[in-house]
Every structure is written in C-alpha cells, then in structure tokens.
Amino acid sequence: MNYKRLIKVEHGVFPKIIRPIQYEDRIVIREWRNAQMKVLRQNNELTSEEQDNYFENVVSKLYEKEFPSQMLWSYYFNDTMIGYGGLVHIDWDNRNAEVSFLSETSRSINDDLLDEDWSSFLNILKTVAFKELNLKKIYTYAYSRRSNLFPILEKNDLKLEATLKNHVKLENAYFDGLFHSIENNKYVFLTPAEISDAELFFKWRNEKEARLNSINTEKVEWEN
C-alpha cells in the first residue's frame, strides 16, 4: 500500500478524506488531546516540546518503514481538519492492529457528529486495514465511561470481545476496559469486475443451481 496517497470515501452526503498526518497538524492535535484527556490514555497535558519531539522523532519516520508500528492520518471534511487517527500497535506477524481516532473537541461532544465522524472514519479504515493491508483483525480499547461510543462501534460491526473489570482508576473511580473488534472474514468488499474474472463467472453461471434460478436455464457457451 502507498501510505502517502489520499483515500476518499463518501459517507451519507458528505465527502470525507484522510491524508497521512503532517508536521503542521501537531498543534491542533495537541489542543484536542489536552481538552479530551478524560477519554484518552493520557495522564498529563502534552507540552509543545513533547509534541514537537514526537512528530520529529516518531511520526516523521513512519513513512520510511516498510512495516511501521502505526499508520496515522488526518481526517478532513470540506478541506477542514476535523479529526485524526489510524492504526496503532500494528502486529504484522499476527496481522492485527488497534484503531485510534479523535475528533475535533466541539464535534466530540455532539452525539450526532460523533456518530458521523466515527462511522465515516471506520468505513475508511476497514477498507485500508482489510483490503489494502490484508490484516486479520482490527480492534478498539476504550474505558467504560465512554458509553456513547459503544453503540457506534457495534453499529459499524465491531463487537464486544472482552471486558477487563475495574481495569483503570480515573478521578478516584474504577472503570472497565472494553475491547471491540471485527475480523477480515466478516467484511465484504465490492470491486470492479476484471477480464481475469471471466472464467470463474462462466463456471458459476453454468452451475445447475444458478441455471435453475435464471430466466435462461440453458448452459451458456464460452464463445457467448
């Protein structure tokens, strides 16, 4: 897969695109992360120096690797960046990865926009993970207090796989850690037919069950 290419998806009536994360994105991402620490695995506010160091020494080197440990994209709607995320903790041997996504702060507190953003991003990411990277499984890990997120994940075919009871202490209270996942064999893609598919289509068309359910029940000749 060409990590640097643009990937476009139509979700609902709004065009959304992702592009590989850029150095200039770091400022707004730091603002979002610091404003939404309650839903992240982040204990302290990120400083400008920490964010600069991360982008210079980690993110910038992702493009150089054949099998990076993470692949991050900025998420756009009408040329405005409204989120970022991607695949992290990529295990190329076992072919699985964790989904990471964070939307712009004002959108994240609007349930309708949260649903729209997560659903669109997951739609793109499933295509990238399963069709382009041929991963076996992708999953999310989130704290149980993110109750508005879980129906969105399940609507997008990520099912609850495991619950770690009282797994994390946040603000003097314990919360469960929830894993949701989807496997490649549960996801179907449509792709344009190719001339190389002709022989397989010919075989299917002439099978007895296919002919019995066709308007024309006669066998098709290869020349036709």
3D architecture notes:
The mean pLDDT is 88. The protein is of the alpha+beta class and 224 residues long. The two termini are 37 Å apart. Strands 1-2-3-4-5-6-8-7 form an eight-stranded mixed sheet, sandwiched between helices. The longest helix has 22 residues.
Features:
eight-stranded mixed β-sheet, alpha+beta
SSE arrangement:
Blueprint: E1 7-11, E2 14-20, H1 26-35, H2 48-62, E3 71-77, E4 80-91, E5 96-103, H3 105-108, H4 111-132, E6 137-143, H5 150-155, E7 159-170, E8 173-183, H6 198-205, H7 208-212
Parallel strand pairs: 5-6
Antiparallel strand pairs: 1-2, 2-3, 3-4, 4-5, 6-8, 7-8
Overview in brief:
By secondary structure, the protein is of the alpha+beta class. It is built from seven helices and eight strands; from the N terminus they run ββααβββααβαββαα.
Q: How many β strands by DSSP?
A: 8
* Radius of gyration, CA atoms, in whole angstroms: 21 Å
Spans of 5+ residues with little confidence (pLDDT < 50)? Answer: none
Report how far the terminal alpha carbons are from each other.
Answer: 37 Å
SSE order: EEHHEEEHHEHEEHH
Strand order of the largest sheet: 1-2-3-4-5-6-8-7
Q: If helices are DSSP runs of H or I spanning 4 or more residues, what is the number of helices?
A: 7
Helix percent band: 25-40%
**SS strand fraction:** 25-35%
The average pLDDT value, as a whole number, equals 88
* Global shape: elongated
Main sheet properties: 8 strands, mixed
Structural class: alpha+beta
